[in-house]
Amino acid sequence: MQFKHKILSITIILVYLLIISGYFSFTFPNKEIKNLRTQNSNGLGEVESLDLTILCDNYPHEDLVCEWGFSVLVETNDLTVLLDTGQSYTGLKENSIALNKDLSKVDYVVISHEHWDHVGGLSYIDEINPGVTVYVPEHIDTQTFNSINQSTLNVIKVSDTKIIGDGFAVIGELYGPPYEQALAVNVKDVGLVCFVGCSHPGVDNHVEKAIEDLGYNTYMVIGGFHMVSATEQVIQLTIERLIELGVQKIYPTHCSGDLFRQYLADNYPLQNGLAYVGFQMSVKVISGNPLIYLITVPLTVISMTIFIGWFQKREKDKSKRS
Known about the structure:
The protein is α/β, with parallel strands linked by helices and 322 residues long. It folds into two domains: 2-22 and 288-321; 50-283, 4-Layer Sandwich (Metallo-beta-lactamase, Chain A), CATH 3.60.15.10. It is 38% helix and 22% strand. The chain contains nine helices and 13 strands. It has helices at residues 2-27, 89-98, 116-119, 122-128, 142-149, 203-214, 232-244, 258-267, 290-321, and strands spanning 50-56, 71-75, 80-83, 108-110, 133-137, 154-158, 162-165, 168-175, 179-187, 191-196, 218-224, 249-253, 280-283. A seven-stranded mixed β-sheet has the order 6-5-4-3-2-1-13. A six-stranded mixed β-sheet has the order 7-8-9-10-11-12. Helix 1 (2-27) runs antiparallel to helix 9 (290-321). The chain is elongated and about 90 Å long.
């Protein structure tokens, strides 16, 4: 009986230690990635943290408007940027109001590419935020460009990667077709958070370009991956490539496809992220004094050991009395 109690005690302690170590590994972004680059000479800068909200997506949540398309709002202390605008005026307006997001305060809009399900809500932006700067790919099709350019919006074409604010950069266009660009935000001690619209040129290629152009590894990627029709083999290769590039969190939405989302959840649970219309999260490092952990973890283990010993003694006394 004593042998069984000892095995139980050791097992409980080991499980607890695993839980503690697991907690900290998930809470703190891993800065020990192979070939991690955290230096640049292009003046990108960094933000302390960011908050993101998916305003338009075809994965439903509660009573929000759910329609084919994508739009994500990125907020920091100093800058607010909107990537894409979904497919409609109504969808962007109703969801932004329901989620208490005032798009009249958006500093910049970045359009990933020319497709209707990413530019349809620009009419709402034009209405409530006239004159705001909108970055579009250099090779956006003429019809879409002229349509946007006839509004009050200040339309600027981007070819190469362009820094638009402290910690923010538009990742220069790649050819899919069509030509497409992405948005990246450098979070202090975390790395790049990459926002993609549809990833026609390949989500891994967007991430690789962000790393090469900005000099930081990408911690997380979120958006449409354009893999609705992809096979499991292609999906696996894409995920493995993202992990090889240092990506730790992957949030497939919009055109990523149900198979991609399920395959990622089943086979890469540590990297998997579930996102949908209305999804919100913050990205930042939770700081703390390492000395606290060195003290609290051993004390907790000792306390548990004492409790287990007391419990075993009580059970032993009970058995003697009986």
